[in-house]
Specification:
alpha+beta, tt1808, chain A
Length: 160
Amino acid sequence: MDSLTLPAYTFERRSIDGKPHIYDAVREQYVRLTPEEWVRQHLLRYLMEDRGVPRALLAVEQAFAYQQQQRRADAVVHNSAGEPLLVVECKAPRVKIDQGVFDQLARYNQALGARFLAASNGRTHYCCRFSEETGAFQFMEVIPPFEALRAAGPLKSSKS
């Protein structure tokens, strides 16, 4: 697998039906190891081990409806009330994080209503926070620790 700029973690891997799989500690199962999954698994571990996100408050490939179609967010961090705080989009290392990725995140967030958005291809990482004062997303240096995500809370959106 490609080298990433996220911390190095040790993963359980195995071959199933001749194809590589990696153990997803959040879903508690082996999943097919693709370049995007390699990034997702590193980012999940980063969120749990380095940002303090409790495993129980992480959802992987969370399904939701957007314009009468089913979509899936790569990862969503929730608070204890189940409200989304951070939506994460992962791409394979060779996929550029561009405006299209941010547009995808913004569409997903219309349905989810998180205050924070993050995108990563494992080498380049972006995180932004919605400011109710300016009505815009402001980019941040890093994904905040869980306590900061929790303290900021979900957006007060039209979903309420």
